[in-house]
Amino acid sequence: MGIITKIESQKKRDDRVNIYIDEKFFMAIYKELVFTFNLKKGQEIDPNNLKSILDNEMYMKAKNKALSILSKASQSEKQIRQKLAKDYEEDTIDRVIEFLQKYKFVDDEDLASRIVNTNVNLNKYGKNKIKQNLYNKGIEKSIIETAIDDIDTDKEFENALYLGKKRYERLKNEDSRKAYQKIGNHLAYKGFNYDIIKKVLNKLFNDVDEYSC
Fold first, then answer.
1. Cβ pair 192, 128 in contact under 8 A
2. Are residues 101 and 131 in the same domain?
3. The RecX third three-helical domain covers which part of the protein (predicted)?
């Protein structure tokens, strides 16, 4: 293929170098790869060696992109795969995911647990909405089911009652039937199931049998 005639550090990126072959610019790669492949002036580059260098160059680019994405917000494996798929081959993405999972940069079980904790304790959502939020993150069904099963039923009812009381204070001067339905709809939107909604409404209203949520 040719002989390396110069390896030059880039002025604006000290982590990258320019490789010249036969006195002509050939490619730019991460400086780390110079040491990985023991590249030096006067060395001949063959096609097999070049392919390995380029494969690792793409891997490092993809890995750095993934780490940049994760520095802004936690992501599931599926989300990372989708964002890398625009620019990188599947084999490269698989290597990146393996690295991210090895060092716990991507951990869907931990992510699901943290989302559940935030949704229950901060947002006060019901299981149905939390389940949808996890699904939207691309988390596997089995992981979602395990995370949802860990939600305390008493805590879920406590959250529903809290939200119901808040909405009741806003609607207490309205017609009881309309207020009842609005609160029921509000709690359904927040992800609570029929049984929990019914229990909350029974606590908030006297004689609710004539109404339906």
1. yes
2. no
3. 154-201
User: Are both 181 and 133 inside the same structural domain?
Assistant: no
Indicate which CATH number applies to the domain containing 64.
Answer: 1.10.10
C-alpha–C-alpha distance, residues 34 and 27, integer Å: 12
In tens, the pLDDT along 128-175 reads: 999 999 999 999 999 999 999 999 999 999 999 999 999 999 998 999
- Range 115-148 burial, b when 16+ CB lie within 10 A, else e: bbeebbeeebbbbbbbbebbeebebbeebbeebe
Cα 121 from chain centroid (whole Å): 20
Three-class SS of 179-212: HHHHHHHHHHHCCCCHHHHHHHHHHHCCCCCCCC
The token pair at 20 is 């010249």
